[in-house]
Every structure is written in C-alpha cells, then in structure tokens.
Write a structure and sequence with these properties.
Distance between the termini: 61 Å
Number of strands: 20
Bound molecules: beta-L-arabinofuranose
Strand order of the largest sheet: 1-5-4-3-2
Strand content: 35-45%
Number of helices: 1
Largest sheet: 5 strands, antiparallel
Length: 340
C-alpha cells in the first residue's frame, strides 16, 4: 500500500516536472529567435530604430520601434522625406539585459487604406487584446498622415487592422502649422476606472476620449496647450499624478519636456525639460514605463554607425536610461548616458 502511494507521488512529481518544463519552454524565446545582450546605449545595434514605445505585460517588457531604413538619396532629402520606415519591429526582455528580437510585427501594408510610411506608435493591452495605435500615410480619400489601430491576441502579433479605416484622419482636426501631417504620434492611457484616452499630434497636441471598444473616439477632440510642443506625446500616471511628456523645441533641435495634471482633463502644468537634445538627432521621442520596480525613459538619438553609415535624421537608435522622481512627484532631469 505504502509503495503504491509512493509510485503515485513519483508519477505526480514527474507530471509536474514535465508541466513546468513545458511552461518554461512556452515562456522562453523560440529557438529561431535572435537574442542579444544590452551593451549600453544605443540599446539596439543591428538596426537603426526610432520612436520607442514600451509595454509591460506579465513578466516581460516589450519595446516597439520604427525601423529606420537607409535608401539612396536619404542624405540629401528634407521635409520628412529623410525617413524610410516601412515596418515596426518588436523586442522584449525580462531583465533589461537579455533581449529577444521578434522581428517586424506590423507594417503599413497591413492597413489596406495606407500608402506607406510607418511613423511613431504605441501598443497597449486591454481585456486580453493588444491594440497597436500607429501613424501611417493614408491614401484617397483621406490623404494625409492618419492614425490607424491594429489588434492582436498577443503582444508580438500578428496584428490586423481593427476597423478597416483610419481612426483619426486629417479632416478631423484643425491643420495648424504642420498642415496635412499633424495627425501623428499616438499615445494611449487607460485610467483605473476604464476610461481610455488618445493623445497625438505634431505642432498641436490633440486629446480625445476613446470608447471602451478602443477603436472609436468618444466626443470632441480637445487641444492641450503646452510650451514648445512639437510631437511625440507619451501619457503615464503614477501615484495619482498624470504626466504628459513630449518632444519640445530646444535650441534648434528637439528635447523632452513634460507637464502634469491631477486628471486627464487638466489643467496641465508645465514642469520643464526632462532631457536635453539627443546626440546627433533633430528628433527625440519619449516612452516611459515602470518595470520590476524601476522607471525607465526610452528615447532615440542618432549616435550609431551601422554598416559604414553614420547616424542621421533618418537613421536613429533607441536608447534607455533610468528615470527617478522627486518627493513631490516631479521627474528628475534625465542625463542621456552610454548606459554602461
Ligand atoms: O519617425 C518619424 C517621426 O519623427 C515621428 O513620428 C516623430 O515623433 C519623430 O520622431
């Protein structure tokens, strides 16, 4: 009798071990996925990458970036044509040191109405679905920069167009200084009570509620007045303080500044610069998340030389530095470091 019980116990232990192994296998990077170890900034060194957006899900931090690609003529182009971004890439980590490459997870070609160009994005999770809000160039009849939303059951895709049309088009907002290309750079925040907000814009910072389905605006589009606002807003909340961090105009190039409020409807109080300008780059673009007890600021510079090509306005590199808060909730100025 006691031997019988021992056998059952051994068998259960065996089954448990197999279960744990399967779970570990499912959670670890697949064999054909490439990995790399963080060696300091820039974080990604085998591709030019820009416009970081970070998402923490479970034990893992996912980093979504635009893939800055070289094209002949890039170095003499101007007016936004310096960029050649035809896909968004995803990387992930469980410890900020060992990174897994998930490759391209979305491309403008995944939106039937798009005619190319993959600018800044953010991915967020709600009720088990992952929503990819992103900037794409829309074709007829909504010509101009537009915001699309794709959805997936997994943070690494596949993502598919959630609504078959842009969520925000040029005709929905006033044009301001940047004309047809001011509807770019979406950021999304879901409050504890479930209210979701979409914020975006170049030259003007737009803000609107999202319906619970995450794929329709709910009500009017407001404008948030922020000093030296250029683009790249990022929303986050910590201890009841709401933060709107953005690329602002520094001395001829962008730096990062931010404002805070006690709620999404404002009023927003300007809190000053969070960083200086990025090395060798006209643009900079913030993403802020808490991961395993530490806060991080992701941004890009253009400090990497890859395949003999120096960093440039359209050949940028994502970096990360730690972020610290003061007692009163303001964020401490972040020095852009080499990270090692
Ligand atoms: O990458 C293209 C554009 O440059 C982004 O949409 C802006 O935020 C700026 O980084």
């Amino acid at each position: 009798m006691s031997r019988g019980l021992g056998d059952v116990y051994k068998r259960q232990k065996h089954i448990l071990s197999i279960g744990i192994l399967c779970l570990l296998a499912a959670c670890s990077p697949k064999e054909n996925q490439k990995t790399f170890v963080y060696e300091g900034n820039p974080l990604v060194r085998n591709n030019f990458t820009a416009d970081p957006a970070a998402l923490v899900h479970g034990d893992r931090l996912y980093l979504y970036v635009g893939h800055d690609e070289y094209y002949a003529g890039q170095d003499t182009a101007s007016g936004g044509r310096e960029f050649n971004i035809t896909e968004w890439l995803c990387y992930s980590t469980t410890d900020m040191k060992n990174w897994t490459e998930h490759g391209a997870v979305l491309s403008p070609a995944d939106f039937k109405w798009a005619v190319g160009e993959a600018w800044a994005s953010q991915v967020i999770e709600r009720d088990g679905k992952f929503y990819y809000y992103t900037t794409v160039q829309a074709g007829e009849p909504c010509v101009g920069k537009a915001i699309g939303v794709a959805v997936s059951d997994s943070p690494t895709g596949p993502f598919t167009d959630a609504i078959g049309r842009p969520l925000v088009t040029d005709d929905m907002t006033s044009n301001g200084a940047r004309g047809w290309w001011n509807d770019i750079d979406p950021t999304v925040l879901v409050e504890e009570d479930g209210q979701a907000w979409l914020c975006w814009g170049n030259g003007t910072c737009f803000l609107a509620r999202l319906k619970p389905n995450m794929t329709e605006l709910d009500g009017d589009i407001a404008v948030v007045d922020l000093p030296e606002y250029v683009e790249g807003p990022w929303l986050h909340v910590r201890n009841g303080i709401y933060y709107l961090t953005y690329a602002s105009m520094g001395e001829g190039r962008e730096n990062i500044a931010y404002a805070t409020a006690s709620g999404m409807e404002g009023p927003w109080t300007y809190r000053g610069e969070l960083t200086g300008m990025a090395e060798n780059s006209f643009t900079i673009h913030p993403a802020i998340v808490e991961f395993k007890g530490k806060w991080y600021l992701f941004y890009h510079n253009a400090a990497l030389t890859l395949d003999g090509r120096a960093g440039a306005i359209g050949r940028r590199s994502v970096c990360v530095d730690e972020l610290h808060y003061n007692e009163d909730g303001t964020m401490q100025y972040v020095e852009q470091t080499k990270g090692n």
